[in-house]
Amino acid sequence: MIFGRRSRAAARHDDDAQPNPALGIHLDQVDVRLPGVDGQLQETTILEDITLELTQARTAILGLNGSGKSTVLRLLNGLMTPSDGSVTVHGIDVVQQRKAARRTVGFVFTDPLAQLLMPTALEDVELSLREVEADATQRRELAQDLLAAAGLADRMHHSVYDLSGGQRQLAALTAVLAVEPSVLVLDEPTTLLDLRNRARLMERLAGLPQQLVYATHDLELAATAQQVVVIHDGQVFACGGPELVADYHQWCVDGFPGWDQL
Amino acid sequence: MSAQRELFGTYRPRDNWLHRVPVGAKGLALLVLSVILMLPWQRWIPGLDHPWPVPLACVVLLMILGATGGVGWRSWWGTIRPALLIFVLLAGYHVLVGTPHRGAGVLLTVLGAMFATRILLETTPQAVLLDGLVRLLGPLRGVGVKPERVGLAIQIMLRAIPYLLGVVADVRSAAAARGIRMGPVRAATPAVIAAVAHAQRTGEALAARGLD
Q: Which parts of chain B have pLDDT scores under 70?
């Protein structure tokens, strides 16, 4: 971190930590609260008592807008810090070992334009590779190979503004995967895509060796997961297999049992 | 965000001599040119009465150089267009206060610097620029400077300039779509909010990739 105050010993501890995929992802009694402003507003609870064990290769997180599913994802690579409780990803404590957690967990945002920091896809992938490849020539060749494998060989030099939504999403995904994280977290990855690009992205995701956790409103994508978590009003409403997707659809129509009827 | 609102342009891969010049030589040339543009030559060269001929010569030279490297009229216009309002205001001010020659000198100096920057950025990949900057700042490691961080900050700033110019245009377009006329001053507040949101998103994207 640029302006960090953490000790060198803590940083070394971060660097040394290696992920162990067999340990899965654990959220233990996690609360997330946002403080009020100057004591004028009440503290807001975003998540309350979230306890989850994510051990399957694919986990879908479902929930209405504002339910807290994106916050759950942000906890996984330390973009959000829990007010109480702990989060461990493949054995790495996300709060105590943040650098290792960021290396372990790749994060794909809903809007790839917010994620692509460099002017072109090639330069953005090269930026990611800075951490793993010191030689500039090899870095460039590796970035070109990765983008070509993603089907962006003829678009890698174009401005990110000139790419289609699908191409941006693939470029963002390539930049994140370039450093080979062991977990990939995606926040509504198909929301901005047309049907063709959505199908391409789903095909790409299906072939990845990483553990995937994604928040989505796309029930077809959710049904491809082995584990489905429903977040409602900042709490875990249900957790189960892909059969939960049909229940969730019903709850969206009829109301969440024992909750919305109150 | 309007892609065309790119003040300095982005790298365009081509195979010509300007693209092959090492980044260090281009950076040095940019530095020398900036010094030439800023010096008050009319004070030292007899017969040179006004401050604009030297910057004008630089601009013409840059356009010729650019043409040999594939940087053409579209690029120059792309550079001028976002800053056109500022140019008009500057020119108007100097005409009003009776200093048109000085105004021409100022405008051509700014234009020269912008054109030189455009050539550098259109013929050099940003990753190569970043490496050049990091090498340039290397000796400052001893005094606690982290060249990689500085290089990245500059890269992100360069990426943000066209975005922020586009934000103002987008805010005005959104207002126009609702039948509201919005001048630059009224567009400033939503533009500032959008700029802060952009900064926040960029920070999150950096953090998510372990680059914070």
A: 1-9
